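**Archive record**
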Amino acid sequence: MSLKEEAEKLKTEIANAGKEIVALQELQKTHNISLENVYAKCSHQWEIKYTPEHQKGYVSPGDAPGTMGIDWRGPFSVPSKTIDRWTRECKCCGKIETTKKVRVKETETYEPDFEKPPLK
């Protein structure tokens, strides 16, 4: 097989693969719409779990020796941290949602307000 024939064969295979990719993307889009319709019909019963993300600390070595200059950066440590995250899963349909957002609820408290007597 000549190089020209091999190149033509590869071009044809690439074109066919592109068509298959487009067809699969359309199928994926159709399935995603169907799944969203199933989720919309469900009267969700959520089970909420606290699932924090742990990021490990590390030491950055900084710039290599011999690269001194006004913008040289030495080694520094990045501390580990935990990011709050909650996951909820519907017991009926299996839908899973995850969030890192927190809503602060303010509680109303009442204190007696005694008026001060007017100054004479």
